[in-house]
Amino acid sequence: MENNNSIDLSLLAAYPGDYRMQLMKQLYNALNLEKEGISVIPNVKYKEILHKLLVRKGLKPYTGRFKSKSGDIGYEPRELSVEKAQRDLSIEPSIYIPTFMASQRGKGENANNMTVPFAQFMWEQVLAELATELNLETVYHGVGKAAFAAFNGATEYEVGDLVKYTVDDEVRYFRCVAATAAGETPVSHAAKWEWAGARAVCIGLGKIITDELADADVDFDPVATGAVDSTNAYDKFTKLFRAHAEPVKMGKVGQVITYCSITDYEHLLDDYENKIKKQFEEIDGIIYLAKTNRLNVIKPVSWLNGSRRLISTVAGNLVAGTDQLSDMNVIKTKEEMYHIDAGITFMLGFQIRDLEVLKVGDQA
Description:
The chain is of the alpha+beta class. It has 6 helices and 17 strands. The protein has a domain at about 30-55 and about 70-100 and about 220-364. The strands form 4 sheets. It has a 6-stranded mixed β-sheet. Strands 1, 4, 14, 15 and 16 form a 5-stranded mixed β-sheet that branches. A 4-stranded mixed β-sheet has the order 5-6-7-8.
């Protein structure tokens, strides 16, 4: 089996001088679905149907005769499907020999020495990076494999275009980050492309919303909020909350949560401070939108990074499906002759339970 070693030692040259035997952690934006407002549904292996119970109007004046009408009770399905994802690593421990980390490999360089310097620290960072990819690239921005077109050598690609391209006999997924000329591939001009495998894992909340907005058969339209800035944010957030049906605004179906990016959250803080009071109201660490009787919680979330969409719904309406969330923290390792293979696999998918209690702004 071909060994595509995952370790890059290009910046770990054996320069003269002393080294501190300690590594610093890279800052990662970890995945924490439930703390960021997404309910987790476990034990989903493939698909699960989320049903909304519908009881239609039927009250009438007294007639003295029993007569029911058909269709009084119905069910509205929403399909939650999960896809299997994986993360692969291959590590050749002996490549550390010409570096200052060689002393961490212990005595002996026989074939049985498979010691990787700072191994536990490295695995912790691998898991942290995986969680970050999912959080920033999959939860909202995931589009699934079908959204990636096969690379065409005759095409000039623009920023944002998604392609799949075969590298080392494996189909890989890329996003264009700089306009290309025809024939500039993710390998030949790597700087013009970024890895987008996390976006191909499954369909995220952003695509679910845009697909529903585009479906002419679905009664679901955006609220015309317009662009949010530090002079109008309070009005925009208020307009979104007031677009809800009366029972929602009165708290009859649960507390309303408005999800936003940290950018729009900061605009709201600035605008609120200028218009209402010098300090934003916060109770037990929870931010409430003014004039909603504490029925509208404002929740900045990292999974909306890069998006200016405002999303307002009741608690528990945004869901993630998985078999076990803990699967993302399990690394299976296998020793080959001269290297170690490591793999992580898990199931993941997203859905919105009920569009009737969902309001979104018109900014993407």
